[in-house]
Every structure is written in C-alpha cells, then in structure tokens.
Design a protein that fits this description.
The structure is a homotetramer of 368-residue chains.
Chain A: E1 5-6, E2 11-15, E3 22-28, H1 38-48, E4 65-67, E5 83-88, H2 110-117, H3 133-151, E6 154-162, E7 165-166, H4 177-181, H5 190-205, E8 212-219, H6 233-242, E9 247-252, H7 263-266, E10 270-272, E11 277-279, E12 287-288, E13 291-292, E14 297-303, E15 313-316, E16 322-325, H8 337-359
Antiparallel strand pairs in A: 1-2, 2-3, 3-5, 4-5, 6-7, 6-8, 8-14, 9-14, 10-11, 12-13, 15-16
Helix pairs in contact in A: 1-3, 1-8, 3-8, 6-8
C-alpha cells in the first residue's frame, strides 16, 4: 500500500490531485444503518474551504460534495458498503504554476516528489496540496457524527497560537465550536484573536507567512479505547496529526511540559465521583498506557509557516542550477491555522471512530 | 488486528508479558541474504536492559536472546522468512506486585487495561511494561544493520533534557554512540550530563521520578523515502515514537519552534553541492512533504516522569474505594531517559527500514 | 476493513451499488511513470458489459469510464498516486425491482445481506450485482498492461464448459483473445461453441439459466513470484476467483484430477532448455510450493447457473411467510460465462501484478 | 508483508523452518477472557503429527507445545494480548538432506524458493515443509474452541477420496470426529476406508505416493458471516485451503457439479421452520452472495500426491545439469490426506473465527 489509506476498521482512502478532475475519499467500514450526515459534512467542508474571509486563500471552490455510493436511496441510511464522496475541481488556474515547472520551491514537496516518483503533477502541487484534506474532512464529519450519536463524544479544536501570540484562559471542558468560530482566526480568546489577526495581516503585508499551534479536545470518550502497544491512542493521534500538511510537532496532555516535571507533580490521582472512577487532575490528557481513561483527551499540533511566500528566495532548477525565485501571484493562505481547525477535528474523529469500532468484539463476555 | 504489529514491509509483531514465559518479536519481511547481526542486537539490548548502573532499575536480566527461525544454518544469512527472537523472563519477582492486584496505581495502565479487557496480567504490568520494548530493540537492531549495510544510514539518539537541565552544543551531524555512552546518563554534553545525573539522584532520594527529552538523528537517508499522504515520514516517526511507554510529545525539525517563525525564517533554500541537490539550512529536519530530502533527519521525543514513585498517593481500588497507596519496594528507574536511547534508535530504524523497502518497485523505470 | 479491497501492493478498492450514482475503483500502488492504457481498459469493459449480443443481459450501459485522479495531465503517465476510475449508472430501471423488496429471491444475496447489515440496497442487488465487477475489470486492465509492458506476461481466458458441453483441443500455450472472441460464447472450439450457444438458448427459452467452467492461462510469468505460506500464488488466485459472483470451484494445474494420480504420474521432471531451467510436463500449472516456476499458469473456475430465473419458485418474504415467486421481466443473462471471461482475466492480472510488485526488494542482492 | 500472516481480526503469523530451532505461531486478536483450550490444542496437534501409524511419516516428534505469552497466570484465561505458541524441533535428521543440496527435486519447492530468495533452508524443506502447519493447527484449535463456546459452531473434516476410491453415504449433518477417527485413514465409510488403506499401502510398496480429496462441514454458523465482495466466505475459505501444502483444487457446495446444472436445479428454495428462515436444499453449501445463510457450510479440497517418491526421476542440479535422482531413504507420508484432516479443520476454524469477529460492530443498532 502507498499510504493513501488511514484506519483499520473505519478506513478511509483519499484520492485526487489539486488540479485534476476531482478530489475525494472512500470510507470503508462505516457501520450500516446510520442516517447520513449531509449537513455536518457540508458545515465542516465550509469551515475548511479557501476564500472564507481575508485570512485565507482567495481560491473559490464551492466544495460541493457528491456521494457516489454507500447510501440506501430509500432511507438515506448507510448500507455498510463503501461510501465514495468527491468534489470536482473547478477553479484551478493551472497557468499560475507555469513558473514552478522547472524550479524547486524552497520547503515545498516539489523536489522530494521528483526524487521519489520521477515525475509529479506540477500544477497545484498534486497530492501535496492542502486540497487533499477535503476527503479527510468529509470522512471525519461522518466519523464525528457516528461518535456523537452512538457514544456521546464531542470534538472541538481551536487556534491557540499564531507566531508570538498565545491564547489565554480557554476552557477545553466547555468550549463550543460557535465560540471558536466567533473570530475569523478561530481563537476563542478575543484579545488573542485580535493580536493573531494582526500578526497574519502583517505577514501578508510582508509577502510572508506565519506558523502556529492548534489545540483540540475530545470529550466523552469512555474508558477503554486504544490498543496497548503500537496503536496506542497517543500513537494513532500523533500519526494522524503529523500526516497533515505543514504539521511539525505533537503533544498529548502536558506534552513537552511533562519533561520538566517529577512523577509526584505529573501523576493523576484516581477518585470515584459516585458514578465512575475518575482522576482528580488530567495531566495524562485522557490517555494512560495508550488507552482512554474516560477524561477529556487533550492534544496540540504545531504547524510551520506555509512555504509559499511572495518574496525572492534562493533555490535551484530541476537540473540543479542556482536561481532566484519569486512565485507569480498565486492564491495561498499566509497562515493555515484557521482552516486547519476542521482538519484537526477530522483526524481526531477518524482516530477515535476507528478505535471505537476496534473496541467491538474484543472481549468474550461481550461476544455471547 | 490488535496493534501488536508495526510496519508494512519490514513488519514486526511483539509478544510477551513482563512476567510471562518470554518476551519477543517476529520480523516478517526481512530481505533474504543478509548476514544476521547477532552482535549489534546484543549491544543494543545491553544498552536497553535494566541494572546497567545506579541510574536504572536493579532488575537483573541477562536479556540473552534466542533466534528461533529465519536463518540459514549453513551461511548464517536471513532466509526471507519470519525471524522469531525471544528472551526468557528469569528474574521476575511477582511477589512484589501482590499489593497492586486490588489497587489502581496512579497514571499506570492498570485501570485502563481493566476497562478495556476485563482482566489484566497483574504482575509486572503485562504488556504495558517497558520490557515489551525488548522485541522492538532487537528488531530495530536488525533494521539499522540493513540500513547501514545497504543504504549507508546511521542513527544516533541521546538524552537532551532531564527535568530542568538541557544539553548544549551537541552536533547531530558528527555525534557518535560512543560519545553518547561516555556518560551514564547518555548525554554527550559532559556538564549537562553531570547536572542530569544529579537531578536523577535527587529524584530517587525523594522517592520520586523525573521526565526528559531525547533527540535523535538519522544521517545518510537518501532523498525519496516516505509516502506522500498518511504515511509521511513525519507521521510514521511520530506514531512510532508516541507508541513508546511514557512518550508525551514529538517534534520534527524545528518542531514547536516553527510555530513562532515566519516562512522567510523557516524555509530551507536549495543549493547544489556539486554532487547533488542540498539545502543550505535544515529547519525541515530532513523531511519535506512527508518525504526525505537527503538531509539529516532530526527529531525529539518528550517522556513524562515514570508513574512509579515510592511516595504515598491518593487512588482507588478496583471497586472504586478511595485508598492511600505506596508501592512496596519494587525495581524501577527514577528516569527512563538513558535506557530509552536504544528504544528511540530502534523505532527510528524500524520506520526507516520499512520506508526503504516500500521505496522498492514504485517506479516503472526501476521495474524493468 | 470490510473486504472491499484486494491486493497488498497493487491494491484496489471497489465501490458502488448497481443502481446508485456510480460504480468504480481506486487503484493504490500503481507504479509511477506508466503510460495509462485507456484503450485496453475500454476493450475489457466492452467485453464485460451487458447487451453485447443475444447471450447477455439486454441492459444497455455504454460503461464509459472517467479517470478522476492519478494521471499526469502533461504526459498521460501514472503519478504513483491513487487512480480513481468510475462509471456512472445510467440505465437503471429500479421499478423492475419493486417486486423483490419484500421477497427473498432463492439463491440470491437478499436474505444474507439483510442478516448481516439489517438493510440492503434493494434495486439492482446493490453490491452483489455483477455490476460491481466493472471496477475489477478496469483495474485489471491496468494490471495486465503493466504485466505485459514490464514483464512480458500474457493472460487469456476462455469458456471451457457450459452445462453438459466441454471444449476440446484448446491449446493454452498459443491461444489468443481474438480466437476466444471469434464466437459469441467465447469458446475457441468452434463445434463446442455452437453446442454451448444452443444450451444457453435452450435455457433462456425455458426461462432458466445454466452454469459452466472458465479456464485461464498466464504465459511468461518468470520463476519466483508468490509468497511461500498463506499468500501462495495458488491461494491468492483461489481467493481472487472465488470472490467473483457465482464462482463455486477453483482448480490449479490438474486440480481435482491430481487426487487420482500417483506421484510418479503427477511430478514434473526438471530439464534445461539451453536458456533456463524448465519442466518437461506442467501438471503443477506453473506453481510449485506456491511460487511460480516459469511455466504457464493454468487455472479453472466453475460458475453456478445464475440464480435469476423467470420461473415460479418457492420462497419466503422478509418476515418468513411462504410465497410463490416469479420475477417480473428483468434483464439478466441466462449464462454468465461469456461475460465472465474478462473478469477472470482481470482477477488473474490483479493477483499477478500484486505479486510482481511484492517481488521487488525482497533480496539484499537486489537492494544495493 | 510476506504472506506469513492470515486473518484480519483473529490474525495468526506462523514462523519456523522444519529443521530450525522451533516452529510456532502468534495469535493476535484473540478475544480476552477465554479459558485457554490446552487440551483441544494437544488433541489436534496429535492428529496432525507424523508417526501416528503406518500410514504417516515415521518422523517422531512429540509436538509438545509451549505457550510463551498471552495467558493470565492466575485464571488461565486469554489476556487479549498476543499468544505465542511454539514447538521445538527435536528429531530433525538433517543428514538425510545432504543429497538434495545440489539437486532440484521434481515438484518440490527447491527450485522456486531459490528463484525467489536466492538461498533456502535445505534441510527439511524449510517453510515449505508440512511442519509449518503445526502453528496453523494449534491456532485453529483456539479458533474452533472460541467458535464452539461462543457461537455453537462445529467443524468436522474427513477423507472422502484417495486415488480411485471415494467414500459413500457420509452424512455431514451428523458426522463426528470420533467416527472419522475410527479408521486410520480418517474415512467414515468403513468399506472405503479399507480400500483407501490398500491404495496407500500399494503406493508405499511401489515407492510412490497417492493423492485424494478431503471434505469438511461447519455446522451451526449463523446467517450473516462473511463480507460481500473480496472477502466473501467462499473466497476466504478458498484462499485458506489453497494455502495448504499440496492443495490443488477447492469446491463449495456443489462445486464443479454446479457447472452442469440449470438454475432451476441449483437454486435453494427458502422456507421457514418455525424458528428461522431456512432453505429446503443446500446446494449453496451454506453461503450465498459470499455470506453465510445459516445452513451447513460444505467444502472440498483436492490434494496432489506428495512429491517425494523413492523412485529415480529426471531432474537437474542448481546449475542446470541433467541428473537422475532418487532420494535417500527419508521420512515421508505416501499420502497426506489422513494428517491433513486437522489442517483443513484448522483453516476452516481460522476463517470462521475471523469472520465471526469481523461481524462485531458493523451495525449501528448493535453499537449503542
């Protein structure tokens, strides 16, 4: 396999180049009988699409998705068969890319794709485009709907840092997506949101880009999801997040902060709240030994500044000749963070839904 | 599958509980004809084993490994068939664990294993024990030998941070394992090593534990390894590292630092060194678009302080009754970092060897 | 996973219900740089489609396929990324199926799908329709083109038996597809072809159906393809063929005939033809120990008579009430064999192409 | 992966060469909490082992299996972690194989292994030895115990044909293993058993071998097991059986006989027996559309005569020189059929147990 599939039981395969006929996804393993969440998919795709506001790329794609298979026409429910969803590519202006056919853009995937495959889809960056994530977001919306309806799980991500600005006082236990979407930059701390917007605007003005950090919570995950060894929830989530374009770091719970603590400062004491066993703190971020413990899962992902900047840079051509390069005016976000919010939610949902289904049938007392 | 296997083409499956008959590993997909690296395996297992010095658990296990299959008795070469290696458990003192049968130790996997499986191997922590990593280290030594012999790849990890102490001036481009092993704590900065040792000794004296950060480099990886979407090298490495016991965070290249940079500060300009296309800086950590670009791969992993501390803590019994708990004197490291060095090297090698083999046969011009 | 994917390295996933929006396939793992064989795909789809002549279902579908992804627009070559092909469903007359919504048709999948999923796509039989094989045939044409261009492999299948008529004197070593297609029934023995056609016509006249046997050869497969244990070529081919609708039996080489022989009658003596090691007979059907030996691969597949017959039969409704049932006039082949020829060729190609790619990189002497 | 694993959820990996240190198996995905069936495993291994009587190879191996992992030492129950079982090789007389180091034995895997891997384990045939099936039989016994305890499934195989002798009047609906084991040849038709024994004795006397056919039934499989497309029960069973050494053909239900029938003769009418929907005939062999329908699953497997015969044959050396070859007196069965009975039962159990577990969690109405 070539790494275009993700998940064991709720398994998705994405396809499509940025400027090809379509991009899309197949979900294999979606349980049968689920009312298909058209509306939720449309909402998350809308949060992901470019052209939402001045912070994101002006490429205009309605991103209307077509479901080609997997639904019962009579009931609208899932059949338990593969669900193929795709979005046609409409506003691809390949002419914009003539200048990059012969030049390796710094910190893009042009050089590495050529090194691997011997050729690449030059226009739009092919599979390395963030457009590939449309399929992830669409499938992730199905996953989060299953999780919400069948297990009561809620997933919310937000922009926690842009450049030098970090949000303060965000309460992951109560945060809603409406609160996140209250600001264009998707940071629920209004003061920080303003400063982040200013940082992004400044970067754009400088023909530059800027990085940042997303945080995400998953609330309501019951104890017992996750495999003990290689497919720990921590491992699955880390792999999922680090597969997103521009992701450079991942944390669960206290993350790097845990490295500075002693065990007596980091351990989460157990207690009983009258209903079930809980922990009184949640430094573990909801995962112990790779398995959920019933507390809120807390994670963070750092994204680098996007590689496309409209400044002149040193680079080489395909044959290695040094050149100075500045892209012709294309359409790119100076900061991917706001649009990455639904991507991180989608990857979280895909991991959790997969482990939800992997939990089924693993105990003889539940198989009789 | 239950998450006990790792890798697509160089695929390992680990088995064994800490206090069962044996722990071990099967490698499936090791290429045929490779002289089996008994010595390298023994060395890395020796670096991993407890009881090396006063910094690590006094559990004494010779960790002598037996190869049950996969080798040609005549030539000592790999047959291309599954290689089963195992280490018998000898010094398991299960009596030490009587006190934990009924109590959920804070931030251990006792509770989550019970929540998942309905029962667990109580003595020694079963699969959640670091003893599970023996199989990873043994298989990783085979992987790194293949990488070294067939592709010229070198992997070196070191302890970069313990608690509040961070190493300075380590040069990943030239660092050797001998330099790393010069100090008991496996930090090549001698001054930092001394301070780290003091931090660990202080934690032990306080019946406490302490966390830290490992860094690792892989030198000599050619351009073109890694899949473009879900199995990016970044994703595979992140999943690999976050599957290690106590891992809490992962970075590639600049990691979280990249979040604070602008594109003009983070992009790596391309150049040509007369032999091949290079970058003049390496903020990408050797990976662009998920694929290696021929520069040194640089990663970091944060580990929490180990959960076992010999202090009294609040917790509950299996039925949820609050109790105060202090473990009877067992055998545990106050800091896992020094012994985690060969584990991080092993996981790096397993990822790279898998992607080395996945690279074979993906281009028609190489299949004729 | 839910069994909609096939292959390890040349991996296909089919999707689509017979009367949904589209049916199609994703190929993941097609090597990069291959000129895409549009024409070959169209030819094989044309041999598969209904309405070719009076022997097959009159459903008229042009079966024009659209490639949504995976090709370089400049060179027309494969990019090494997922190739999504689909065919829109046009002539679906779902009204024909009103009568089967409440009734379980004998020996169809209506009852078993309901038992498994709790619901099913009633019109057209959903995934159990032979229309699902469009994706297999399209992907199989890509596979056989790779095999032909890169390894010199040729695959030819033919109808060897229909009901009581069996072909005589067919020489698998020289047979061409043109010879096969010379008769409507795709049997290269002209006399048998005539008798088979008569049997099919008689079955149709009796509102009945009839079964048969296909044979297939793959010429030019070099020695060394196939895995030694569970993924023997014999096993992969058997699983592939028995996944086709209506397949009931599979043979390699002498098949059931081998059960009656002694070793001295069945063994194939080795010889050397001046170029390479050969066998003087080929009772093994080109596979020994699960691995190809360089001789022609010979297999057979038996198909049952299709379940749809226009006669009244005993059955029950979904709630178990006995009824007499005769389908309204729908569109079905009285004999699937002629249209199954490209399906068997496709499954053979998919297996062989997968094992061709699995052969890459398994020996250290070929990895340097 | 290299084809040493089988199954999706109840996944086994076998390892070990015939004359290496050990042969064995890892089961990954065995549900937690099952009382481990030591006795059943020992019984099936005993039915598989050589040296049972004069019909089988005189190699004497007690085949005592050791469980290295996966069991709770306190309760003896499965932990839900990998179960490693192995059998040490004791009576390997590698000297017997000196004569075959340089010669390709006709219809053995010597030549094809060399063609694939460039080297092979010469003594004992390595992985191509029937000794590899020890792991399958041990794991299959665990699978059939789970099926029996949790789902009420019973599996019985028997020898139905040896050479020219075929059993008559065997009733698969009531047959027991005791009835099968009543004769040395494992044929429940006493008269046929006698004739088969004579055929085998005659073959041995002639320094020859003889082939045959096994049949197998699985009773009590509920409706709804099996995936609809590539992992149909028919496909999974066919792949499983054809992965056994010397298997050459496979049938489900009427098999090749179905090719001669009309639909009106082959269709199974549905009825209702007061409890559940049934069919009045079972030509489908319990599987429709790839999914179990609640009737008895009926299959057959043909085995070729074993390749080892003690007669002089034409062959070549590794470098292609023609030679006459007769093996030194080794230890081989003139007919594998009696010992293949537990192998076919094991593969049937492995397929069914895997599909039993794959059935869990596929419907939303069962996930709440």
């Amino acid at each position: 396999m070539s790494g275009n599939s993700f998940g064991e039981r709720f398994r998705i395969t994405t396809f499509g180049e940025s400027h090809g006929g379509a991009v899309g996804v197949i979900i294999d393993g979606c349980p049968a009988g689920h009312p298909f969440p058209h509306e939720r998919i449309a909402q998350q795709l809308d949060r992901r699409r470019p052209g939402q506001n001045r912070l994101s790329s002006p490429r205009r794609e309605p991103d209307a998705f077509i479901v080609q298979s997997g639904l019962d026409p009579d009931s609208g429910r899932t059949l338990g068969t593969p669900i193929c969803m795709l979005v046609h590519n409409k506003d691809a202006r390949s002419g914009h890319y003539n200048d990059v056919a012969a030049v390796y853009r710094p910190s893009h995937a042009d050089f590495t794709y050529d090194a691997r495959f011997g050729l690449r889809a030059i226009a739009g960056g092919g599979r390395s485009s963030a457009r590939e994530t449309i399929g992830r977001v669409a499938a992730g919306a199905v996953a989060e709907d299953l999780l919400a309806q069948l297990a009561g799980v809620e997933i919310v991500a937000w922009v926690d840092q842009v450049g030098s600005t970090t949000a303060q006082g965000v309460d992951g236990e109560s945060l809603t997506r409406d609160q996140v979407d209250a600001s264009m930059v998707r940071c629920p701390d209004a003061a920080a949101a303003e400063a982040m917007t200013a940082e992004i605007d400044a970067a754009r003005k400088d023909a530059d880009s800027v990085g940042g950090v997303l945080r995400c919570v998953a609330r309501g995950v019951p104890a017992g999801w996750g495999e003990p060894v290689f497919d720990k929830l921590t491992a699955s989530l880390a792999g999922a997040m680090m597969s997103l374009p521009a992701a450079r770091a991942f944390e669960i719970g206290e993350g790097f902060g845990a490295a500075q603590l002693r065990g007596s400062q980091h351990n989460d004491p157990f207690t009983h709240d009258g209903q079930r066993i809980r922990t009184t703190t949640n430094r573990s971020g909801g995962i112990q030994g790779g398995i959920s413990n019933g507390e809120t899962i807390r994670l963070a992902v750092a994204f680098k500044p996007v590689a496309t900047i409209f400044r002149e840079q040193d680079t080489v051509t395909r044959d290695g000749t040094p050149v100075r390069f500045r892209p012709a005016k294309g359409r790119h976000d100076p900061c991917v963070l706001p649009r990455a919010v639904p991507m991180v939610e989608a990857m979280t949902a895909l991991v959790l839904c997969d482990h939800f289904l992997r939990r089924a049938g693993i105990r003889t007392d539940e198989l009789r």
